[in-house]
User: Fold these one by one.
Assistant:
Number 1:
Amino acid sequence: MNKFVRLFSLFFAFIFLLLISSPVQAVQFKSGTNLNLPKGENLDESLFISGEQIIIDSDITGDLFCAGQSITINGSIKGDVLCVVQDIKINGLVDGNVRVAGQTVEVSGTVNRNLNALAQTLTLKKLAAVKGDIFFGVQSVDLSGTAGRDLAGAGETVTVSGSLFRNATVNAANLNISDTARIRGDLDYYTEKDRAASISSQSVVGQVRRHDLIYEDKSAPEKSESLSPMSLLSKVIFGALAFFIIASVLIYFDKSRTEKVINRIQEKPVLSGFIGLAVFVTFPLVFILLIMTLLGIPLAFVTLFVYFVALIVASVYTSIVIGWNFLKLVNKKTPTPFLSALAGTFTLGLIASIPVLGWLIALIAFFTGLGALFTSFLPEKTK
């Protein structure tokens, strides 16, 4: 493995370990269709768990990472909870933060830090308590429990009947602050101008501020503002300089790989383009399949990182080839890689600025570079 790839791999591995490592012991992995972690079976490490039906009655000293269809947490979690599920119920105690994404999120227990939820429905039961902040992006939210700090989020229907010790900032089409609610700070809410919010006057200790959302009339077609020649030229120059810097880094630190990719583009541009299109289309499916298998989660995120790097540098390789052929045609001499990169990035930038046709050419260049980069990591056939 060359120095460039090794550097990125070590850097990402370090960041990944910082994110998932527990300060106590190792990480434990569990997966299956129906999983039940019984009470009394305490885990002194972080846990990665996936399955269709999961019930956690055990206490976990580290963090909990989960993915599945239905997850119920009855035990005590000393660390954070990070889950992507269809339905999740938190009935126990979580000492850290809770970050969940799913269809239904229900909290009946205690969260000692913050709650972040992206869901269709979020419910904070009457006896539930979140001692930190609550941030949500949902369709419907019903907050009957207690929040120790601030509340912020957006939803179609937001109902608050519990207690909030500080301020609330809400964007909602339908807002209902009931008589049983108690907001000790200020309430700022954003809603459409013709919407009426139901807010009990005795429920908010601080100020209540309404912010009307006024949308522009989109019925009349907007006139497209064309860029001036100088603005267009500046855009091309700055974009080309950015790509030239990336190309210079690739040439200097990863010369052998860069030459290999360039040769593949020169020899098989059409095949490289089709392979690049296939990689671009199929990668999201591969990532989802990896994330669904518990042991594949670390590999999935490493692959995702490499994929994003490839998306950034794909067109750079093609631009070097374009610059090399252009200079070769003009000067008849073999140009240097850096000069080829400089000429190619500006040439591709100018071509890409042409409406429709330029975008199509830039897209072809991107797929060609992506395919050549992908095939450069494949083992070569031995003759």
Number 2:
Amino acid sequence: MSSCSTRAGPCEATDATLEDDMLRLIFTCCHPSFAEEVQVALTLRTVCGPHHRAGRARLSHKRRGDGAAAAARKQKIRLAGIPYEVPEREALEPRLRGVLAVIYLVFTEGYVATSGEDLMRPDLAREAIRLARLIDALMPGRGEIKGLLALMLLHDARRAGRETAGGDIVLLEEQDRTLWDHSQIAEGLKLVEEALRVPGRPQSYAVQAAIAALHARAPNYKDTDWPQIAGLYEVLLRISPSPVIELNHAAAVSMVDGPARALDLIDALEARGGLKGYELLPAVRADLLRRLGRHEAAREAYLAAAAATQLEPLRRLYARRIAEMGLDQVPVMAGLDPAIHLSCLAVTRNVDARNKPGHDKKG
């Protein structure tokens, strides 16, 4: 089976690249006769099983030695009427968009898990990077492939600084940048430049990677080039509009024009119903309200965010934010899981204890 280390240089482009069973499986599932959403859903279901949110955590372990699992996946493909075969090189192009979408979903689950006690699943992030390297070798000179690989490398480079030893989230503005993987950042920055030099319309992954590059280049959070980041999100909204990009754009605008302007943008986005049920929407709203000094409204939004997520490190973060606003009592919201309420109370009391005189705040 062909393989590339996540820290190695570019793979050689050979016919053996698609002998990698995972990559071959993904290309097979992303059949051009299906719509892109169906390609992605079929691939995740086939690769990860029917509960593909949890199944993604097993993705990196499905390798050649797992004969029974491989046979089961191939059987699912046959039942769907898709021939299990390596596509000819000219047949790869119509499948590329779906393949890249699947790989990015795998990476996203590795970067921030959907649920559970652990913030990250590094094995998934590494697997997504490995697959992107293989595709870059198979189809060289493609801006969207180089952009996706750069985006994942730049995000993954911050892994060591993103959580405490106890598993709590360390936000970007608080991260120790000496912990970042600077050799991986250098590789990502080089790939961003290559992706943006490809002739034609800029690709979405390349623009997202350019945003990640600005974060990676900033010597500290305060000196981040927020106006350029906001401008790049506006480019993304033109070439690949989505409610999630609108939300990210609003967050960037808050660093340029202030939280009040960003809150107006989020109110308009929410009024259109574009992000109904999206778990990070109340979290972004809560942060803006906190920065505006509207602490009671911020508390309600943080509680809504805690109720929306299944990831424990995020719940602890929201509870800490409530405590930091000096709100030492967390009222029960209608419909809030009592367990989440108790978790908020416990973290609030713990933060209060740390803030008392004489307490060692380094813990």
Number 3:
Amino acid sequence: MKILCASDLHLRDDRPRCRTDNWYETTRSRLQWLIGLMNENKCPLLIAGDITDKGSNNQTLENLLLEEFGKALFPIWTINGQHDTQYHSPKWLRKSTYWVMHQAKVIEHIETKLHNNIIGDISGFSFGTPMTNGTGIAMCHRSVYPTTAQIPFFMGEHTDTIGADELLDQFDYELIVSGDVHMPFYLQHDGKTLINPGGLFRQKSDKKYTIPTVYLYEDGVVTGFEAPIVIDNVVQEYLIAEKARDSRITAFVERLSTSAEIGLSFRDNVELGFKTNKVRQVVKELVLKAMSNEL
């Protein structure tokens, strides 16, 4: 059995704040790399959810996706993640960009199970769908970490969060491909394999030095392929500005909470704010007019 595994593409029609490059050109180039890798290895591609970053996208992006995914010479089997649907709700699946791609037959959504004469059985567990046991391949979109011990404490309250070691112990699948956690890794245990590809793009500044990876699974052997990246296409400077802004807001709130002069009169408090802060006259007038119902 030979198959290429990816997840969490988060394809989007707007440029992430941390990116400095032409986002559409980067998207096209990365998809060409992915589809080219699949065609070169002459095998199907599994994508374990969150192909898109939101349910509805503009036609420019949809046309790009149809064009690039349409170059695949082998099947692309997928499940949906929460980001593939509006409001993260499965009831919007058939009104999504994801479904446009499925209807155009450039991807094939696995509702429950698909049988392929070469690959065998592939079970699909989209976001919010509980996993059941089986054989062959399973795709799931849930929070999976390398081991149970590595689950962050703040994720412990989520019932679908699990370690790869525990997931492999629970099920009999030869291969499980998981999506949701943007951390590339794989684990093999007792003749079974779990692959968590971890994302195809760096869309947050804390991922600046993370190299997007996809994995080839062939008869029990896993090979990672790192996507070509330009490190400095991701910047972190905007975080400094955000931190300074947050500090100013915190300081303002603290002044309000500690000021002995703050009273119960909203108007008095507003006028006190005018006195203690630099506020343009035109802004003062608009605020006072609004308070007097004159606007």
